Amino acid sequence: MKFYLKHEQFDKLQLYIKNILNLYYEDAYLFEGEGANFIDINIESNEDMTVTTTMTVDGQVYTQTANRDENDKRAMKQALGETLIEILTAHTGISQSWGTLTGIRPLKLYHKYKNAGHSDEETKAILKRDYLIHDEKLDLMEQIVKTQLKAIPDLHELQQEVSIYIGIPFCPTKCAYCTFPAYAIQVHKNDVPEFLVGLLYEIEHIAQFLTIHNIKVTSIYFGGGTPTSITADDLKLLLEAVYHHFDMTHVREITVEAGRPDTIDQDTLNVLNEFNIDRISINPQSFTDETLKAIGRHHSVQETIDKFKMSRAHNMNNINMDLIIGLPNETRNEVMHSLEETKQLNPESLTVHTLSFKTASEMTRNKSKYPVAARDEIIYMMNLTKQFAKENDYIPYYLYRQKNILGNLENIGYSKQGEASLYNILIMEEVQTIIGLGCGASSKLIHPKTRKIENYLNPKDPKSYNKTYKDYTHQKIKKLQLLYTT
Ligand code: SF4
């Protein structure tokens, strides 16, 4: 669907308006100039701010006005967002439970108002007034923030500490929806030894920097790819390096993604036992074999069940499972089946994703090959998972949204009481620096005082990483020096 915005407003507002349009139309395009679906915005700013938007959509003309007491850029966007939401909801009949929020981390706003001294009631009233967030989402936000603060009571005092993310860029095969660095291990196994040389170099030098400057490590997360794709011996080498170089005294949690069941074996579990790691992720995504085949998972449902049981027998006491809602050809029946199977296995935590069509994925490139359910069905299926969580004592503890997510919903992490992943909370709420080591690992550098955020990305493919890891390590150290020593 094509929309037009006049020249003087295009540069300043196009991104924001496009994000709002995408809440309603998957294929919304915004052009500069005049055309049939035209958006005309009038902004009056004195002491306060008044935005009047007149919009022609499919031949119908709508006008809406919104006011804010302040007259800054944020107030202008809030008021503009409100007018657009009112118009587009009236036109399409689609209601937006997240209101004008288009960002990835809605919980950050809630924390912000709470930290400024507002009660839960006041915080919810502000978010409802300024962003038009619906009560159901406000209650969810309140519940999650309370759970987060129970899991990490000093959540807002951890800015002087860091967490570590270690990225292993290999998987058995590439899933159709994936945009992570994930290279087929059978094809790339000769790259592993050299990759590990680079990773061990990063571990040694970053750990040294942290020790010299007395910076504590709160949590460590092994992700990727699938870290358990490499051999048990290589994983052991890596864990030995981590324990040898980092000061582990203050580390509260270590997690290893073992997402693909086809990478889990006795040897790997023995290595995890050796290092007292009992928190892993085994991700079924779906319990329907045809779906797993369609998305290129290369493992069966039975293998998920067998490897889960094998992990339990090896004292993996905190297992997360990921499910995806809206996978190709799946209806509420497949989702109900997945939830039933999940119930039998009883993992400590469950992360429910809504399928997102990420730009670079195979699924997005060949969208017609992957038919997915309609918006209402997606919402219904998500509600089934919420109901399941409630009935089975899973408490929501983190939440994030993505662009191009089906039904404009959210991804929710649930856990049983006391089993929440600290790392997931720390990264989602952006309370401290996360240092990314390894291929494609993204560092989120957060200034402990100003809270300014800079992202720094290691090379995605093993060959480039192997050539440049020293430069990247030292660049990162320079940036960390600026954050923690000035
Ligand atoms: S298991 Fe995860 S990282 Fe690996 S290909 Fe699938 S989605 Fe990507």
Automatic annotation (TrEMBL):
<dbReference type="Pfam" id="PF04055">
    <property type="entry name" value="Radical_SAM"/>
</dbReference>
<dbReference type="InterPro" id="IPR058240">
    <property type="entry name" value="rSAM_sf"/>
</dbReference>
<dbReference type="InterPro" id="IPR034505">
    <property type="entry name" value="Coproporphyrinogen-III_oxidase"/>
</dbReference>
<protein>
    <submittedName>
        <fullName>Coproporphyrinogen III oxidase</fullName>
    </submittedName>
</protein>
<feature type="domain" description="Radical SAM core">
    <location>
        <begin position="156"/>
        <end position="396"/>
    </location>
</feature>
<dbReference type="InterPro" id="IPR023404">
    <property type="entry name" value="rSAM_horseshoe"/>
</dbReference>
<dbReference type="InterPro" id="IPR006638">
    <property type="entry name" value="Elp3/MiaA/NifB-like_rSAM"/>
</dbReference>
<dbReference type="InterPro" id="IPR007197">
    <property type="entry name" value="rSAM"/>
</dbReference>
<dbReference type="InterPro" id="IPR023995">
    <property type="entry name" value="HemZ"/>
</dbReference>
